[in-house]
Amino acid sequence: MSKKFECSIKRIRFDENYEPANNTRLTTNFANLARGESRQENLRRTLAMINNRFNTLASVDNPKADRYSLEIDIISAEIDIEGNGQTFPFIEMLKSTITDHKTNERIEGMIGNSFSSYVRDYDFSVVLLENGFKTGEKPENFGDLHGKLYQHLVNSDVFKAEFSKQPVICLSVSTSKTYFRTANLHPVLGVEYKNDEHSRTDDYFAKMGLSVRYFKPENGNAPLAFYFAGDLLRDYTDFELISAISTMESFQKIYRPEIYNSNSVAGVVYQPSLSYQDYSLTRIVYDREERGQLAVKQGKWTEENFIKPYNDILNKWAANFKVKTAQQDHAA
């Protein structure tokens, strides 16, 4: 017998033969690449980009830059709200495993990386748009339910049985904020940046119990935003951090080439912009306009199939849920 709010987890291998499941959000990084005539070539080139970047960063005893490769699994979490066996696909992340081709050893990579959520689509593409909120504006309780659902998942026995560490989510920096380079240099993550004030996305992830730090890895063009619980620099191995950088920087070069595949490097003061013209395109096909349209469709689908039908149950559950809020550090 299923229990109310019980979570379940499925794994799907992300490789050149990957085909999105019916309940996968089509705006998700990996699903978007696996569509159309170029799907297999897209996937093959993306995986090659990821492996090449990993070997560049993991350069010790790796003279030909071919010692390691990544296996990536899509982790799809579903939740049974009423305990009747009817599940809703509410969160997807990625989990990497590193193969050392010199020793034939398999090494744990990062859990997290990309972050995909139907409820997030609803919040950003329905709640904000239909209520006319401008850039940076949001209702007072924005992200409350989503944050509690996320924390419910990652603290569940089901999640802990599969993964020994909390996720690290790696996203693009915000185009509405300015970032300032610091003197802090990490051997793997690279140079640290601070921003002038946290973005709406930063605040949204704080409701999930996640803090944020921004680092520009060696030979990267722009800082990445790392969202984490605990201590990013001490809780994860070098290989876990490298796996997150190589996976997500590769995706960002495809989706945000103006920022991550530009022909210039972020300076001491950095303002990301999608209107920047001096950048290079990858050889991977991607329709960003379609992705924005799909986000709205998926947000409305979530409203009709999750928010409205379970509204009373969700509100009652959320009111009794003990939430942890991330401590946002603004220190320069």
Looking at the structure, what is the overall shape? globular
Helix content range:
25-40%
| DSSP summary, beta strand count | 10
By secondary-structure content and strand pairing, the structural class works out as alpha+beta
Largest beta-sheet characterization:
10 strands, mixed
Order of helices and strands: EHHEEEHHHEEEHEEHHEHH
Total of domains = 1
Strand order of the largest sheet: 1-2-3-4-5-9-8-7-6-10
Mean pLDDT: 87
Distance between the termini: 52 Å
How much is the radius of gyration in Å? 19 Å
**What is the beta-strand fraction?**
15-25%
The parts where pLDDT drops under 50 for at least 5 residues are: 328-332
Tally the helices. Answer: 10
List the helices and strands and how they pair.
Layout (H helix, E strand, L loop, with lengths): L5 E9 L14 H5 L5 H19 L10 E13 L7 E13 L4 E12 L1 H13 L13 H11 L2 H6 L5 E5 L6 E8 L3 E6 L4 H7 L4 E6 L7 E5 L9 H18 L1 H4 L8 E2 L17 H20 L3 H10 L12
Parallel strand pairs: 4-5
Antiparallel strand pairs: 1-2, 2-3, 3-4, 5-9, 6-7, 6-10, 7-8, 8-9
